[in-house]
Amino acid sequence: MLNKTTAAAGLLLLLSSSAFAAHPLITDDSGTQGKGKFQLEINSEFATDKEEENGISLKERAGETAAALSCGIAGNIDLVVGLPMQWYTQREGGMITADESGIGDMSVELKWRVLDSEEHGISLALKPGLSIPTGSEEKGLGSGRISGGVTMIATRKGRLGAMHCNLGYSRNEYGIEEENEAARNDIWHASLAAELNMTDNLRSVANIGIETNGDKTSDVHPVFLIGGLICALSENLDVDLGLKCGLNKAETDTTFLAGLAARF
């Protein structure tokens, strides 16, 4: 069984492990902002997970509000910096065993659109990134060490909407030796998302994916399903709502998603 900080870190990582896609999607798209343009995203996620172990009920609630700023440093390259505020509560048999909150680890990513075929509506991108240990590892809000990874992104756009596919790898490092022993360092992610244009200003979205279980003692890998809506209030302002459900016991049971994106 993982210690409280490792278990909490795992739950927080499952909230939005592929940082700054078109929320509420976790699967990223290949689009970039354009040189000299910016996008600010404010996203909130609220997760609940319940289990029973040796006749004792275990309940965890976790959440985060994250801000991400994307800057177009070239026509096909974005620099994305994000910082989350996180919190979690753990209960065993109705007793609170952990209750922490604070700043999480900062992320710095570079999205590079390497191919864009307007004729076929297909584009490809690479997104390498680093996680900077700004969160408290003792509280379970950070890893304590710099970690890195890369995501390969494919997008296919059509008249009715778009499809996105991601394949990602991250190498997670931990400052606390107990966490290094309990958690897997090599994490793979694969996911598929679809967007459907319902009206000029409203899109419905769906997302399914799987990721390596961070717990070394389990060979069951988390599988998720997301459904949601993205509404364009104006040309440069979107709001969204979504619900993420775990399709097996390894994934967080339910997560409510809400956010906004402003472009300027």
Summarize the entry for a quick read.
The protein has helices spanning 4-15, 177-182; strands at residues 38-53, 56-74, 77-92, 95-103, 106-117, 122-132, 147-157, 161-171, 186-197, 202-211, 223-234, 237-246, 254-263.
Q: How would you characterize this protein structure?
A:
There is one protein chain. By secondary structure, this protein is mainly beta. It has one domain (4-263): Porin. It is 7% helix and 60% strand. It has two helices and 13 strands; from the N terminus they run αββββββββαβββββ. It has helices spanning 4-15, 177-182, and strands at 38-53, 56-74, 77-92, 95-103, 106-117, 122-132, 147-157, 161-171, 186-197, 202-211, 223-234, 237-246, 254-263. Strands 1-2-3-5-6-7-8-9-10-11-12-13 form a twelve-stranded antiparallel barrel. A hairpin with a 3-residue loop joins strand 7 and strand 8 (161-171). The model has no long low-confidence stretch (mean pLDDT 92).
